[in-house]
Amino acid sequence: MNDFTPVASLAGGALIGFAASIFLLSYGKVAGISGLYGGLLQRPTSSRALRVWFLAGLVVAGAGIRVLYPAAFVTSFRPSWLVVVVAGLLVGFGTQLGNGCTSGHGVCGISRGSNRSLVATATFMATGFATVFLAHHVFGGGR
Amino acid sequence: MTEGSGGWRRRAAHVAAFCIGALFAVGLAVSGMTKPSKVVGFLDLCGAWDPSLACVMFGAVTVHFFAYRIVALQGSPLFSVTFSLPTRRDVDARLVLGAALFGIGWGLSGLCPGPALVALGGGSATALVFAAAMTLGMLGSIGLASPLNPTKPPPALSD
C-alpha cells in the first residue's frame, strides 16, 4: 500500500517527541491530543486558552502543510462515509473512556514508564491489528 | 508579579502553545502519519506490511524518554506553577475498554485525533466528518461518565 519510509518516519517521530517535550517543559502537562481536545468539551474546562491555542497550531499548520507539502495528505486508503463516522464515534468515545490516544498513551505515557499507558497502547494496537485483519482479509470491506 | 508582566507571560504562553502545536503537526506530516494509508499499512500485518509507524513511535518515545527525565529535574514548568502529570497506576476496565474501542476506530479509518485535526486543517472532508463524529463520541463518553462516576475537572494550569 505504501513504501517503508524509515528515515522520514524516525525524523518525524523525533520531532513529535521533541514537541511533546517542549509542551511538558512549558506547561507541565502531557501533550495528549485527545485529552487536550476532550478537556474543551468538559464543564468546567480548565486551561481553555492553552488547549485552544495548541489545537489551533495543529489545525493551522495542517493548512500550511497542504500548501507547502500536499503529498503529506495523499492516501490510497479511502474508507466509506459510514465507516468514517463509526470510526470517529469509536475514537472519540474510546479515547475519553480510556484517557488517551496514540500521543498521550503511546508516546508520552510509554516514555514515562506508565503501566496504564503500556496496557492501553498494547490494547489499541491489538484491536487495531485485529480490525484491519477482519476488514481487509476476512470481510474485504472497510475501504 | 505585576499585571503587566502577567499579561506578557500569558501571551507568550499562548504563542508558544500555538507553535508547539504546529511543530507537532509538522512531525506528523514528515513521519507520514497524516496519511491514513500508512497507518492502515502498519496495522495490516497480513498485507504489504509497512513498518513506518513503528519508526515514528521509536523516534518519538526515544526523544521524549530522555527529555522527560531532563524536564523532570526542573522545579516548575515555564508557564505553569507545577507539573500536573497523571499519577494513577491502576489498570481498570474503563482503560482497557476505552483503548480497545479506540483501536477499532483507528483500524477502520487510519485516523487518530492528532492526524485528524491536521488533515482537517489541510482541507480533508474525511477528516472533517471524522472530527465531527469524534466530538460526538467524546461528548457521549463524558455525558455517560459524569452521573455514574463524577470525574474531576482536568488539573488547572495557569493560563
Radius of gyration of chain B: 19 Å
Number of helices, where a helix is a run of at least 4 consecutive DSSP H or I residues of chain A: 6
Record field, number of beta strands of chain B: 0
CA gyration radius of chain A, whole angstroms: 17 Å
- N-to-C CA distance of chain A: 13 Å
Largest sheet properties of chain B = none
Q: Beta fraction of the residues of chain B? A: under 5%
Global morphology of chain B: globular
Describe this structure in words.
Chain A has 143 residues and is mostly helical. Chain A has one domain (6-138). Chain A has helices spanning 6-27, 33-40, 48-68, 81-97, 102-111, 115-138. Chain B has two domains: 1-83, no CATH class; 91-150. In chain B, helix 2 (36-43) packs across helix 4 (93-109) and helix 5 (113-121) crosses helix 6 (125-148). Chain B is globular, with a radius of gyration of 19 Å. At the A-B interface, helix 1, helix 2, helix 3, helix 4 and helix 5 of A face helix 1, helix 2, helix 3, helix 4 and helix 5 of B.
Characteristic key phrases:
heterodimer; A: 143 residues; mainly alpha; 6 helices; globular; B: 159 residues; 67% helix
Can you summarize this structure?
The complex is a heterodimer of chains A (about 140) and B (about 160). Chain A is mainly α and about 140 residues long.
Walk me through the topology.
The complex is a heterodimer of chains A (143) and B (159).
Chain A: H1 6-27, H2 33-40, H3 48-68, H4 81-97, H5 102-111, H6 115-138
Chain B: H1 3-31, H2 36-43, H3 52-71, H4 93-109, H5 113-121, H6 125-148
Helix pairs in contact in B: 2-4, 5-6
